[in-house]
């Protein structure tokens, strides 16, 4: 037994050794991956991260700093339009713009990583905040403002968030299960917030720069949606060629990530609209047509992006014509329908009646078909006076029905389909009246024991008849046990 | 009656055409058809005069002003159906014998 336990322990130690080995291998792989991708991606396997720098490396990279420097220079210089003679690919500014696009995507990813970091650290203090404030930059700002404060009435969040959300936050903070953070953790969190905010401002600078050059990079797209939105679209897509490769439905959704909080109304949240919501065309369409307009805008701007990516039209003429097309289409949608013309009547009897056929019609006609009994009643024998219901020629005549020598041995009424339907309805009503068969009888029964009773206790016995007679062959007999389900 | 006829003309143009005749300008048929009233409507189908049993006693014409458009359209349609079948006398869908009694 001891040896068994020992062998188990030995197994456990082996396992832990294996883990350590595999961890080391992963380290090596991850580092290789990092080197390939310019060290921008975060070290995913470093789950035990206390250090911000091990998580977000972007700001330290050379590439980032180079591009930011160039962008700032270019922004100060202002736009120069004189470079149209040079082939676009060789233009250094064009290269810078391409780099800017990639960088803005990277910055966005970085912000998400830092947001996760802040969130994990701040969870000890205020766990509910992450579900109340979704946007990473807003979250960073709020965390920075609140700090280690437990009483939220002393914190002023005006201007950072809409007042409804501030209210919810203050209410949640009063009942939160969080505890104040230790100082180093707090310091690290604040550092991370600062870094997120600087990254955000850097991204804004990059986008401003791209926007200022937008009319020159992608004139057609800017003609349709405007330079600001075009820059945002390009930035989020990761370049003009990436934007051109996207299908239009994806372009429509670029920048759409508004999640309403639980409990807030979804009446004002527009589904499936992204950056295109900010375009002038979209804002000027009536709300009922906005969905269609968004789809149209996305489609045409994708076409324009494709033209721009191959530099098919550098003047923006196609973009302007597409824009006119869009506006004309929206106008057309808003036209009232054509007025109703008074139609003259068709010629009477000229259109043959639409006769239908089939099994269903045949079955319904069968219900009203002429039965054998009726046929016989309609005919008369020659020289023989017919019997009638009231006798002596008064009342309904019976014709050949019941006459001796009429040739028909027996005429049975047969199951009349019309009366079957009527009988079914009647039976349903009958069951409700506790067995009274005629309209003149009352459902009250006068019994010796109880006096007046609503349901006749003799009814069931009467249905069976006297015990001596056999009810099997009876024509008037019904089921012996009538159970209402 | 004129407004009714004018408004109905477009609706029934597929099977009926209206001709307005001024009996002071064209007095040739006044004795033949006994045209003495202020307004008279008579029906002809392929050069044959069609009579309508309106209940008034006079089956040849409508010699009062009708106010209801749909009634008039019904009468014209009945005349057309009967005339196409070859009948010389059709029965109007509404009885006008009590026209003056309310």
Topology of this protein?
The complex is a heterodimer of chains A (485) and B (102).
Chain A (H helix, E strand, L loop, with lengths): L1 H35 L15 H4 L6 H16 L14 H31 L6 H4 L3 H11 L16 H12 L8 H30 L1 H4 L1 H7 L1 H11 L2 H6 L2 H6 L26 H5 L5 H20 L7 H17 L25 H9 L4 H7 L38 H16 L12 E3 L3 E3 L5 H6 L21
Helix pairs in contact in A: 3-4, 3-8, 4-6, 4-8, 4-11, 6-8, 8-11, 10-11, 10-15, 10-16, 15-16
Chain B lengths: L1 H8 L20 H4 L9 E3 L2 E6 L15 H17 L3 E3 L11
Parallel strand pairs in B: 2-3
Antiparallel strand pairs in B: 1-2
How does this structure look, described?
Chain B: Its main location: nucleus. The complex is a heterodimer of chains A (485) and B (102). Chain A contains 20 helices and two strands. Chain A is mostly helical. Chain A has a two-stranded antiparallel ribbon with strand order 1-2. In chain A, strand 1 and strand 2 form a beta hairpin. The longest helix of chain A is centred in the N-terminal third of the chain and has 35 residues, at 2-36. The radius of gyration of chain A is 44 Å and the shape is elongated. In chain B, 28% of the residues lie in helices and 12% in strands. In chain B, strand 1 (43-45) and strand 2 (48-53) form a beta hairpin. Chain B has 102 residues and is of the alpha+beta class. Chain B has a three-stranded mixed sheet, with helices on one face. The A-B interface holds A 342, 344-349 and B 10-15, 73, 77, 80-81, 84.
Runs of chain B in which pLDDT lies below 50 for 5 or more consecutive residues are none
Determine the N-to-C terminus distance of chain A.
69 Å
The backbone outline of chain A, from C-alpha atoms, is elongated
Structural class of chain A: mainly alpha
Report on the biggest sheet of chain A: 2 strands, antiparallel
Strand order of the largest sheet of chain A: 1-2
Instruction: Give me the side-by-side strand order of the main sheet of chain B.
Output: 1-2-3
Which segments of chain A are poorly predicted (pLDDT under 50) over 5 or more consecutive residues? 19-48
Q: What is the architecture of chain B at the second tier of CATH? A: 3-Layer(aba) Sandwich
Work out the strand percent of chain A. under 5%
User: What oligomeric state is this?
Assistant: heterodimer
CATH fold-level name of chain B: Glutaredoxin
Q: Which range does the strand content of chain B fall in?
A: 5-15%
Global Rg of chain B: 13 Å
Instruction: Give the C-level CATH assignment of chain B.
Output: Alpha Beta
Roughly how many Å is the radius of gyration of chain A? 44 Å
Helix content of chain B: 25-40%
Largest sheet of chain B: 3 strands, mixed
Protein name (chain A): U4/U6 small nuclear ribonucleoprotein Prp31 homolog
GO molecular function (chain A): RNA binding
Keywords (chain A): mRNA processing, mRNA splicing, Nucleus, Ribonucleoprotein, RNA-binding, Spliceosome
Main location (chain A): nucleus
